[in-house]
Design a protein that fits this description.
The complex is a heterodimer of chains A (about 325) and B (about 400). Chain A is of the alpha/beta class. Chain A has 10 helices and 10 strands. In chain A, strands 3-2-4-5-1-6-10-9-7-8 form a 10-stranded mixed β-sheet, sandwiched between helices. Chain B is globular and about 60 Å long. Chain B has about 400 residues and is an alpha/beta fold. Chain B is built from 13 helices and 12 strands. The chains are: A alpha/beta (about 325), B alpha/beta (about 400). At the A-B interface, helix 3, helix 4, helix 5, strand 3 and helix 6 of A face helix 4, helix 6, strand 3, helix 7 and helix 8 of B.
């Protein structure tokens, strides 16, 4: 089952939109800038899409989610009215972390009797995806998956499953995670517990944040950015790639990485930061590379394999192919 | 939504406050005995009782259940999985030869609910990282796949209270689409101080034992546990002479897009999910012998479900079982799917624990005494935060 990439929305500390992603990748690949210490994502442009009043109680995680979702729909040349029966799948490594900690703050500061019910209810993992459904009036299936670095591949697998069984024609697949000070602290402490090899190259990167959404369609003629041709999420290690370059994210030391490919393995953690949903950024970047619009051209492949591995040894794998194939 | 072939259920497992295995849970359901109480693993600081259905401490003396490096959610899932695999007559040799998928739903099991850790962090101390390590190594589907050496797809669904039903629906699709031979599907969740306080603050927790659909219902009681089903492809079933206890013949899921924490009052999304599930099963409302309601005991949930029952299923028997399990969140849809399969096999449904007095406003009522069931198809539905609605259509298996 081939899924056509109709549109993309990107919201991240390096800037919003595909242009910002390409620019950030260019600078980082050229070693012209470093990952910022505290990522800050601008969600102000969300006001273009939803009334300011309705955003009063919306947290940062959900704002990133909404903005990336609206941008993906726009980018596909669609409006929310076209999405009524679409599916939504949101991938997240940790869920709305700041809001979860806000609820814990309210328990600690005011006692369980006065803890914030709003912070609690909105910190439930599936609320950001539900907010997209509510905001765009989407009545299709609405899923959230949370399994660290393989969340993105699992979300695409869900989309593929729904499209294959004709449950929906179109799916909004998103990936979101947010930076918190506690996450930064824990990452630093845990990285120190790991050898450089076991940290999978992530120990030096600040936790990242951001949101990426893709508008996918079952009809190949709808493709604007190419296709997702294969999706796998399993503990079977993928065959060693001979030609296809790999965009890699997640947990794997040099030994695991060497087992994945005989040619080129690209890890853009220095672009996005240490973020469990990095694979979504990798997919967006892969479409740019396949369209030949990323400069300098790091590679000129026919397909790109995006891989993400978690600490359980599960590997998410997607093949991104350009429109012409 | 097109009609699809049914997917066989060859094994089931269950653990909750009603029992550590399905047989005991069914006995508890039949007896109607229940004793929710204040939680014992954390304190209730609300000055009044908010009882829960907690799994007793002796459970953790069962084989493999005392491993504190793993979350309770994972341990509940593992316990229910072992039961289900045993019933399905699947051992390590079988699993080693199959593409085994793992699809689990959870809510608390994937949440950052480290209250004590966070308190220490706020106090500028350096808290022990044990809770973080436990969280990072206990993601239900990933940890279960790792434990069993499963080689098929792996997915942890976090759709709040419909997660367990969604995981079964997704697992069935994996079998139909040839992604694997066997799927371990279901849901698991544990009681947590954070969710406990959250539900109390939302003012939807009952101070007494919950009363789903009752005129005097005052809210839910939280619970914990796991429900697991083993789904198999026909080809793999024939290799080890598996028994078919039931089939998953339809699954529908739809969003209300109405409110983040309350269901659509007329069950807009629920009706869509029911229609999809019936379409996939190639059945109509007349084919449904009984309905397992979500039945949390909150005013809004029961009202929305009742509106749909009245419109589409007037006169059909309804059973609500959270009166003996509590609301087990991400596990609920799976535990109740397991109960539904067992009720179909037995040809009867129990009285709905906690229900005493019909609510005239609802216009429908669940069972108040055991009822014989003649049909072969049942429906189990789950409603969730965020306006998620998920429905499973389950048919009695050929071997029961």
């Amino acid at each position: 089952m081939r899924m056509a990439l109709e549109g993309m929305g990107i919201v991240a500390p390096f800037g919003n939109g595909i242009k910002a992603l390409k620019q950030a990748a260019f600078l980082k690949i050229s070693n012209e800038s470093n990952t910022s210490s505290t990522p800050a994502t601008d969600t102000e442009p969300l006001k273009k899409h939803v009334p300011v009043r309705s955003l009063r109680r919306v947290d940062h995680f959900t704002r990133m989610t909404l903005l990336a979702a609206y941008e993906a729909v726009n980018d596909a040349g669609l409006s929310p009215a076209d999405m009524k029966d679409a599916g939504i799948v949101l991938a997240t490594g940790y869920g709305p972390a700041r809001l979860t900690f806000d609820f814990l703050d309210s328990i600690i500061d005011y006692g369980p009797n006065m803890a914030s019910p709003l912070a609690f209810s909105h910190s439930v993992h599936n609320i950001p995806a539900a907010t997209v459904a509510l905001s765009m009036h989407i009545n299709g299936p609405c899923f959230t998956v949370s399994q660290f670095e393989t969340s993105v591949a699992a979300a695409f697998l869900t989309a593929r499953t729904w499209l294959a069984e004709e449950r929906v024609d179109r799916v909004l697949v998103g990936a979101v995670d947010e930076y918190t000070e506690l996450l930064q602290k824990n990452s630093t402490r845990m990285a120190l517990e790991l050898s450089s090899d076991a940290s999978g190259g992530r120990r030096n990167h600040t936790p990242g944040e951001g949101a990426v959404f893709f508008c996918l369609h079952a009809d190949a003629s709808r493709a604007r950015y190419g296709f997702i041709d294969q999706v796998k999420v399993s503990r079977v290690q993928p065959d060693r790639a001979q030609i296809t370059p790999i965009f890699f994210s997640g947990a794997a030391g040099p030994r695991h990485r060497a087992a994945l490919t005989t040619t080129s393995l690209h890890d853009f953690s220095n672009v996005y930061g240490n973020i469990p949903t990095a694979m979504a950024f990798d997919i967006a970047l892969a479409t740019c590379v396949l369209q030949g619009v990323l400069s300098p051209r790091i590679i000129t492949p026919n397909t790109i394999c995006c891989l993400s591995r978690d600490r359980f040894g599960t590997v998410g794998k997607l093949i991104v192919t350009p429109q012409e194939i | 939504m097109r009609k699809e072939v049914p997917v066989s259920v060859t094994g089931m497992g269950c653990v909750c406050a009603a029992g550590f295995c399905l047989e005991v849970c069914l006995e508890t359901l039949a007896s109607g005995k229940r004793g929710p109480a204040d939680p014992t693993r954390f304190t209730n600081d609300h000055g009044r009782s908010y009882p829960v259905f907690e799994i007793p401490q002796k459970f953790f003396m069962c084989e493999g259940m005392s491993d504190e490096s793993k979350s309770l959610t994972f341990r509940f899932a593992l316990h229910a999985t072992w039961q289900a695999l045993w019933q399905a007559r699947l051992n390590a040799t079988h699993l080693g030869k199959a593409r085994v998928g793992v699809c689990l739903g959870t809510s608390v099991g994937a949440s950052l609910n480290f209250l004590d850790f966070y308190r220490e962090h706020r106090a500028h101390t350096t808290p022990d990282l044990t809770p973080i390590h436990r969280y990072l190594t206990s993601n239900p589907a990933l940890a279960l796949a790792q434990k069993l050496g499963a080689t098929g797809p792996v997915q942890t669904i976090v759709n709040a209270c419909s997660s367990g039903a969604d995981a079964i629906g997704m697992g069935a699709a994996w079998i139909r689409q040839g992604l694997c031979d066997v799927v371990i599907a279901g849901g698991a969740d544990e009681l947590s101080e954070v969710t406990y306080n959250g539900f109390i603050r939302l003012m939807i927790a009952d101070q007494n034992a919950c009363k789903p659909f009752d005129a005097n219902r005052k809210g839910l009681n939280l619970g914990e546990g796991a429900g697991i089903v083993i789904l198999e492809s026909p080809a793999f079933m024939s290799k080890h002479k598996a028994c078919e206890h039931a089939t998953i013949c339809g699954y529908g899921t739809a969003a209300d897009a109405h409110h983040l924490t309350a269901p659509h009052p007329e069950g807009l999304g629920l009706k869509k999910a029911i229609a999809e599930a019936l379409q996939q099963a190639g059945l109509g409302t007349r084919d449904i012998a009984f309905i397992n309601a979500h039945g949390t005991g909150t005013l809004n949930n029961d009202r929305a479900e009742a509106a749909v029952f009245k419109e589409l299923f007037l006169g059909k028997p309804i059973v609500a079982t959270k009166g003996v399990t509590g609301h087990t969140l991400g596990a609920a849809g799976a535990i109740e799917a397991v109960f539904t399969i067992a009720h179909l096999a037995a040809g009867k449904i129990p009285a709905s624990p906690g229900f005493e007095r019909p609510d005239p406003e609802l216009g429908v009522a669940p069972t108040s005494r055991p009822k014989t069931i003649r049909g072969k198809v049942a429906m189990s539905q789950s409603l969730a935060f965020g306006g998620n609605n998920s429905v499973l259509i389950i048919r009695k298996g050929r071997d029961v």
